[in-house]
Amino acid sequence: MSVVGVVMNGVTGRMGYRQHLLRSVLAINGDGGVRLSGGRRVMLRPVLVGRDAGKVGELAGRHGIEEHTTDLGAALEDERNLVYFDAQVTSARAAAVHQAIAAGKHVYVEKPVAGTLDDALALARAATTAGVRNGVVQDKLFLPGVLKLRRLADAGFFGRVLSVRGEFGYWVFEGDWQSAQRPSWNYRAADGGGIVLDMFPHWHYVLENLFGRVEAVTARAVTHVGERVDERGEPYKADADDAAYGIFELAGGVVAQINSSWAVRVHRDELVEFQVDGTHGSAVAGLHTCRFQHRAATPRPVWDPEEPTRVRFRDQWQEVPDNTVFPNGFRAQWELFLRHVLEDAPFPHDFAAGARGVQLAELGLLSSAEGRRVPVPRLDLPAPDGEG
Ligand SMILES: NC(=O)c1ccc[n+]([C@@H]2O[C@H](COP(=O)([O-])OP(=O)(O)OC[C@H]3O[C@@H](n4cnc5c(N)ncnc54)[C@H](O)[C@@H]3O)[C@@H](O)[C@H]2O)c1
To answer: Does the pLDDT of residue 182 top 60, yes or no?
Structure first.
């Protein structure tokens, strides 16, 4: 049984702690390590890095983790550590990941890869030049609802896909009378906040992987709630966008329209839902479920303002069955990345893919600022090591 050191930075944060440390790295170890194709198991030795020795030490102690430090450089120098993982606030990511690449570590990071396209491209190029494996979290692709949607698409269920409509959001409390359920940096532009930079990278990989390349974007980003109260109870000016209304034109003429908002109240079955309409059928996918209606089962609705509707439209849809047990999506992607590092398994979620997501966010903000439709050019990136 071999052991691989994984330097984890940002584990005191929401994502770093719950999804990546607890539900991925420690859960993998709890099940005997990551399983490679020949059946060999590899255990992970997390090395926690943080700015506050007390916080990171307490967290390590709580989970029986031996190694923790505030010195990223020292953790990266240790040759037993093969992988660097980053779930810090977005604005702190690029510098730390460059440091890890320079130390020869394979790098896996939360999205967005970086706060700007220039920074994301520089990271993608540095990783390729150094020949290190690189990956970005694309967790929504591993959601049961989205996997079921993909099952329908792969089966040719939709015929020709016409349009995609996405609705994402929920009310994030302002922090005055009820505490906010997201960190305050999300609402400050100078700290790398904003819903476009947060969510457009997600929409990019979902659209690109399921329906085709994003060729143009038209977006309107706004700040609906301009004042909030932070973690210390201090009021602050919320100057980052907290809602974005976007139209994405995809290869093949598919039109996707996605609303993203932290200032909307939920009247949906799930916090995110995508409706896909095709010539042969339609589907509505959420985090967990996916419902579909085939053209042969499509009722004939009749518009009648005189009579209250008695038809229960939702009852006219069928549910895609689970047919399998879906693992935690973050963990599933960790296992893919580790197999990519340890036995060269394929891993399409690389920094180049991450950079395309950041590009869409940047062009979405440009579209909003200038009030126009913006084409999305292909990025000029070198092929990964060993390809092309
Ligand atoms: N994949 C997803 O669905 C998803 C969801 C939410 C957030 N994220 C991403 O994960 C990253 C972290 O988000 P989060 O919600 O966990 O944030 P968070 O505020 O809860 O955690 C941030 C972490 O970064 C550390 N940090 C380092 N430098 C910092 C600085 N200068 N200021 C503040 N904190 C600093 C903090 O100590 C903490 O460990 C972001 O890049 C975000 O885009 C991804």
So the answer is: yes
Q: 164 Cβ partners below 8 Å, 6+ apart?
A: 207, 211, 250, 254, 255, 256, 257, 258, 274, 275, 276, 277
Taking the centre of ligand 1 as the mean of its atom positions, its distance from the CA of residue 221, in whole angstroms, is 22
> What are 318-371's pLDDT values in tens digits?
999 999 999 999 999 999 999 999 999 999 999 999 999 999 999 999 999 999
Give which of 248, 213, 272 is closest to 364, Cα–Cα. Answer: 248
13 CB under 6 A from ligand 1?
yes
Ligand 1 pocket test, pick from 88, 206, 262, 331 with the greatest ligand atom count within 8 Å of Cβ, gives: 88
- SS3 (DSSP) at 84: strand
Alpha-carbon distance of 343 to 345, in angstroms, equals 6
**CA distances (Å), 50 to each of 8, 73, 119, 166, in order?**
9, 12, 22, 36
| Distance separating alpha carbons of residues 58 and 56, to the nearest angstrom | 5
Å from CA of 18 to ligand 1 middle: 12
Q: Quick check: CB of 92 below 6 Å from ligand 1?
A: yes
The rounded Å distance from CA 92 to ligand 1 centre is 9
Res 301 pLDDT > 90? no
Q: Pairing mode, if any, of strands 161-169 and 272-278?
A: antiparallel
Question: Whose CA is closest to atom 26 on ligand 1?
Answer: 88
Angle at 341 between CA 123 and CA 144, to 5 degrees: 90
Cα(268)–Cα(185) distance, rounded to whole angstroms? 27
- The burial of 300, by beta-carbon neighbours within 10 Å (0-12 exposed, 13-18 middle, 19 or more buried), is given as exposed
pLDDT in tens, 39-64: 999 999 999 999 999 999 999 999 99
Which domains are assigned to the chain?
2-139+328-348 (3.40.50.720), 141-319 (3.30.360.10)
User: Does 51 sit in the ligand 1 pocket, CB within 6 Å?
Assistant: yes
Q: What angle do CA 52, 58, 60 make, to 5 degrees?
A: 100
Question: Residue of the nearest CA to atom 18 in ligand 1?
Answer: 13
Write the residue with the smallest CA distance to atom 12 of ligand 1: 89
Say if CB 59 and CB 80 are below 8 A apart: no
Question: Distance (Å, rounded) from C-alpha 217 to C-alpha 357?
Answer: 12
* Residue 10 CB neighbour total at 10 angstroms: 25
